[in-house]
Amino acid sequence: MSDNYSCHDCSTAVAISVLAARHEALESLQIGPDPLERISSDAVRHVALCCSRLRRLHLSGLREVDSDAIGALARYCPLLEDVALLDCGTVDEAALGDIHSLRFLSIAGCYNVKWATASASWAQLPLLVAVDVSRTDVSPNAVARLISHSKTLELICALNCKFVEEEQAHSPTAFSNSKGKLVLTITCPIFKSLASLFPGEAVEEHGVFNECNWRNKRKILGVMMNWLEWVLSQSLLRIAECNPYGMDDFWLQQGTSMLLSLVKSSQEDVQERAATTIATFVVIDDETANVDAARSEAVMRDGGIPLLLDLARCSRVSAQSEAAKAIANLSVNAKVAKVVADEGGIAIFTNLAKSTNRLVAEEAAGGLWNLSVGEEHKAAIAAAGGIKALVDLIFRWPAGTDGVLERAAGALANLAADDKCSLEVAKAGGVHALVTLARSCKLEGVLEQAARALANLAAHGDNNNNNAAVGQEAGALEALVQLTCSQNEGVRQEAAGALWNLSFDDRNREAIAAAGGVEALVSLAQQCLNASEGLQERAAGALWGLSVSESNRSAFVIAAYEMDMLIGNKS
C-alpha cells in the first residue's frame, strides 16, 4: 500500500473508516473535490486514531469538523503538517490551534468561521508557514492580526475575499507593512509578490512556479511553493465555476498566466485542475456554449495551446480528458481553432477519439465538432482519419451515453455539409451509424444532431449519391418521419429538413409518402404556425418536395387547406 491515498469518490463515513483501519501507515489522505456531506466528524476522528503517521489531510465539503475530531488529529497525528478543509459547513477554528505540528492550513470556501478566534489561535502555532483563507469572509483585522502576531508565518493566500479586497481598494497599502509576510489577493500583482521570495536571484516574475528556482534553496520554500500551487489550483477552479462579476481584469492581467504556469506543475492533480479551470473560465454561457473571446485569445497569446496539447498527449486518461476539454472549448473561437489545427490538434483529437475511456473520447469528439465548424479544417479532419474515428465512436458506445454520441453526430453533421467529406462519411459507414441513432436513441440532443447530419448528407448535387444512399438505408425514412413528431423543436426541424432534402430523389419521395411522411408533415405544418421560421420553412419545403410526385397528389387533397394556411402565414 502506498503511503499516499487520493480519491475522487470516497463519500461515506464507513468507507473512510475502513480505509483508515486497513492502512495504518497512511501519510497522505486527499478526498475530493466533490462534497463529502456524508462524512462525519467521527470518521475524521477514526482516521486520527488509526493513522498516526499522517502528514497531509485534504477533505472537501464536510458539513462539520468539530473540536473532538480536530483534537484527535492533534493528539494522535504528531507529524500532521498540512491540513485542508475546503468548503466545509463549520470548522472549529480554535481547535486547529492545537495541532502544533501544522505548517500549512487551508480553509478556503468556509463561511462560518469566527475570525477573531481563528487569528488569535493560529498566530500561536509554532511552525505555521502558510495559510489559505481564499473565498471566505475573512476580515482585514484577522489578516492583520496574523501578520502581527505570528512569528513563523510567511504567506497568506486570500483570493476572492470580499472584505479584504474592499480594504485594499480603500487603502492600497493596507498590508504593505507585513513584516516580510506575503498577502496574495486578486488585486495584488501575485507574480511580482512571489518573486520577492527569491531575494538576490534573477527570477522572472512568471517563472516563480518553475521548480528550477526552488532548488538549492530552503527546503521549506519548495514545499511551500508546491502547497501554493495546490491551493491556487483549487481556488481558481472554484472561482471560475462561480464566475463572479468583475473578474475580467484578474483573468486577463494575471489569472490566465497563472493557470498556464500551473499546467506546467510537477503535481499531476494541479496540472489537471488548471486545465479544467481553463475549460471553465473561457465559457461564459453553458447553455449556448458561448466563449469569451478575450479570455480564449489570452490563453492563445500566452502560449497555452502547445502546453495543453502536450498535456493531452500524456498517458494519463484524466489529464487527456481535461486537456481535450480545454482545447475543445477554446476552439469555439475561430482564431484559436486555427492555432489548434496548426499545432497538430486535429491529429491529437483524432487519436483521443479512439480512446477506450468514454470521457476522453467524448471531449475529443467535442474538439472535432468545434474544429469542424471551420470550412478550412474539414479536409484536414478527413485526412487525419477523424471521420472514421467519429463513426466508430457511435458504434462503440451504447445509446445512453449522450455526451459522446451527440458530439460525434454533431461533428459528422458539420463534416457532411462539405461535398467531399460527405462522401467520406458515407464510405466510413456514417449513414448506417447515423440512422441507427435516429432509430434507437431516445436522447433529444443526439437525435437532433443525427437528423442534421442525415440532412446534410442528403443535401448535395447529382455528383453525390448520398441522397439515394440515405433513402435506401433500412429504417432511415421511417425514423425521420417519426422524428417530425418529437416534442423537441430542434429535432422536428432537422428531421423535416432531412426529409426536404431527401424528397429531391424520385424513389425517396414515394418511400417517404409510404412511411406516412405526408400526414406527419401536414400535422407538423399545422402545429408550427407559431414556431420558428426555420421549422416552418423546412416543413413547407418537405411538403412541396413530396407534392412533385404524381402518385402523392391524392394525399395532398386532404391537406390542401392546411398547406394554404402555412403558405399564407409565411407570406
Automatic annotation (TrEMBL):
**Alphabetized InterPro entries for the sequence:** ARM-like, ARM-type_fold, Armadillo, LRR_dom_sf
The protein's matches in Pfam families, at most eight in alphabetical order, are given as: Arm
Q: Which domain of life is it from?
A: Eukaryota
PANTHER family of this UniProt entry? PROTEIN ARABIDILLO 1
Protein's name in the database:
Protein ARABIDILLO 1
Question: Whose protein is this, by species?
Answer: Aegilops tauschii (Tausch's goatgrass)
